[in-house]
């Protein structure tokens, strides 16, 4: 089944506990902090359920599902899956990081490797695959929190001041477990159906209480979300803040106040090594991050397109020095896209027959992302100049008969009229200068772990043998001369 937007909106009216501005949110689909993003996600589901967008596939079990859940079996499948993901990311211009395709990709990776979960408790071994099928066949929106809260990073979870600061097992019962503690950072969690909870940060011996992996419906009793301030509220209009008002997916601290999780929703129980293995010994992390790079590629293209249009509007695009800056932007975007395509072209087929993106290129671009995106934004910032601030406070100044003539006369452009100019520059500000834009720099630097973590993936996955063999070959091709000259 592939859901429509309306079905998605109905599915998230479940009395979930979200606190914002000191109050509990009544209905996430109508609250001003979430209305924009829920409409955006609903639109994604409408796109996917429309056959002409080619986002539906036949699963291994003969059901019809959204391609975001596909387990790719070949390079062609990877391409097909990427094109589906791109259809979504182009529709949000890459500004919704944790759209439903992100965690769905992780679950496709889990389900492709059932033998990894067989290493754990026998009674739990089928749960990840069963939940994958349930999520796939109901086209669910999954989000995740897989990082312990930022308290004292020099200490393991079991060494913190209190036992249940990070999410852990408080009680084991016959029918399931009781979870207490908190986890960060639930992007999109407020508007998703289920939350996947685990820990991707390396756990240490003694951390067994925290070495779990499970899912929980967003409406579960005791599950509480504390989102950061919304960037969508109090904005005059979408014309004034085109991205903030529609794509603010929200990030939230998640608190578990003794939340009951039935065994069928538990995939890993008190197993430090298996918690690591679910991400690294299955294709989950690679499929999830190839989704992320597809989205990132859409975003870079969008920013570069906007930069080009703004340069033309200001009549600076004919200046060779400006063309050089536009070329620098283009080369950065082409590098990211090229690495994504290379990871697909150079994929490998694992022992389960799953096509896995090549980690050399996938983690190669992820390791650069923390510097690449801020660099793109810095160049864009330089190109737009003060134009982003030489705009009226709201669209109403373009309509008011007292102010409109001044707008028409003084907000001019080499190539576009005053309305188009204001529209262009307000969009640019939402990329580089609004709170939403600032959060996006933080997002691109941290969503897959801190920059040193992303570089660690690159270090471990480059495959230095080939490079070292070349260096060795060169070293062996000469030696100290036998005689003095
Ligand atoms: C906008 C946004 C959205 C996010 N969405 C999600 C989400 O949906 N789900 C989720 O689970 N997580 C999410 N995250 C959380 C993200 O995964 C974490 O921010 C990330 O793992 C880094 O952890 P941290 O923020 O605690 O940084 P820390 O680990 O505290 O690191 C901060 C800085 O400390 C320094 N540092 C710390 N340790 C070391 C070290 N060992 N060596 C060298 N330097 C070090 C580095 O300079 C590092 O950049 C999101 C983060 C952001 C910013």
UniProtKB/TrEMBL annotation:
Protein keywords: FAD, Flavoprotein, Oxidoreductase
Keyword field contains Coiled coil: no
Domain HpaB/PvcC/4-BUDH C-terminal: 276-475
Pfam families: HpaB (PF03241), HpaB_N (PF11794)
Stretches assigned to the HpaB/PvcC/4-BUDH N-terminal domain: 4-268
InterPro entries: Acyl-CoA_Oxase/DH_mid-dom_sf (IPR046373), AcylCo_DH-like_C (IPR036250), AcylCoA_DH/oxidase_NM_dom_sf (IPR009100), HpaB/PvcC/4-BUDH (IPR004925), HpaB/PvcC/4-BUDH_C (IPR024719), HpaB/PvcC/4-BUDH_N (IPR024674)
Protein name per UniProt: 4-hydroxyphenylacetate 3-hydroxylase N-terminal domain-containing protein
Lineage per the UniProt record: Bacteria, Bacillati, Bacillota, Bacilli, Bacillales
């Amino acid at each position: 089944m592939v859901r429509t937007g309306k079905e998605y909106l109905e599915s998230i009216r479940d009395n979930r506990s979200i606190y914002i501005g000191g109050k509990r949110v009544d209905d996430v689909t109508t609250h001003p902090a979430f209305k924009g993003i829920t409409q955006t996600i609903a639109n994604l589901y409408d796109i996917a359920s429309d056959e002409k967008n080619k986002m539906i596939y036949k699963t291994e079990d003969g059901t019809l599902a959204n391609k975001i859940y596909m387990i790719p079996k070949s390079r062609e499948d990877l391409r097909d899956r990427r094109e589906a993901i791109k259809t979504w990311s182009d529709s949000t211009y890459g500004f919704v990081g944790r759209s439903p395709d992100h965690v769905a990709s992780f679950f496709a990776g889990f389900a492709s490797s059932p033998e990894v979960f067989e290493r754990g408790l026998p009674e739990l071994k089928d749960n990840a695959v069963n939940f994958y099928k349930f999520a796939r066949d109901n086209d669910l929106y999954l989000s995740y929190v897989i990082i312990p809260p930022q308290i004292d990073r020099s200490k393991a979870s079991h060494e913190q001041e209190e036992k249940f600061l990070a999410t852990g097992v408080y009680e084991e019962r016959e029918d399931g477990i009781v979870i207490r503690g908190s986890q960060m950072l639930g992007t999109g969690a407020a508007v998703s159906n289920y939350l996947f909870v685990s820990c991707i940060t390396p756990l240490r011996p003694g951390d067994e209480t925290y070495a779990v992996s499970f899912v929980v419906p967003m409406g579960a009793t005791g599950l509480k979300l504390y989102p950061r301030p919304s960037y969508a509220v109090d904005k005059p209009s979408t014309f004034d803040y085109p991205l903030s008002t529609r794509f603010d997916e929200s990030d939230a601290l998640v608190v578990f106040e003794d939340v009951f999780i039935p065994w069928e929703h538990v995939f890993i129980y008190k197993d430090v090594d298996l918690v690591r293995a679910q991400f690294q010994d299955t294709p989950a992390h690679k499929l999830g991050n190839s989704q992320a790079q597809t989205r990132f590629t859409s975003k870079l293209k969008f920013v570069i397109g906007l930069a080009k249009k703004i340069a033309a509007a200001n009549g600076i695009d004919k200046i060779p020095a400006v063309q050089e800056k536009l070329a620098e932007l283009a080369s950065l975007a082409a590098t990211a896209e090229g690495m994504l395509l290379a990871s697909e072209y150079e994929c490998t087929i694992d022992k389960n027959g799953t096509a896995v993106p090549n980690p050399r290129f996938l983690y190669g671009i992820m390791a650069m992302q923390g510097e690449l995106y801020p660099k793109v934004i810095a160049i864009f910032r330089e190109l737009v100049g003060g134009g982003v601030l030489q705009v009226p406070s709201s669209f109403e100044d373009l309509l008011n008969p007292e102010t409109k003539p001044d707008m028409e006369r003084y907000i001019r452009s080499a190539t576009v009229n005053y309305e188009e100019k204001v529209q262009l520059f307000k969009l640019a500000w939402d990329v580089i200068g609004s709170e939403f834009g600032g959060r996006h720099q933080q997002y691109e630097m941290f969503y897959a772990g801190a920059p040193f973590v992303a570089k660690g993936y690159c270090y471990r996955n480059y495959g230095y043998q080939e490079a070292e063999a070349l260096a060795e070959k060169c070293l062996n091709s000469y030696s100290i001369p036998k005689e003095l000259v």
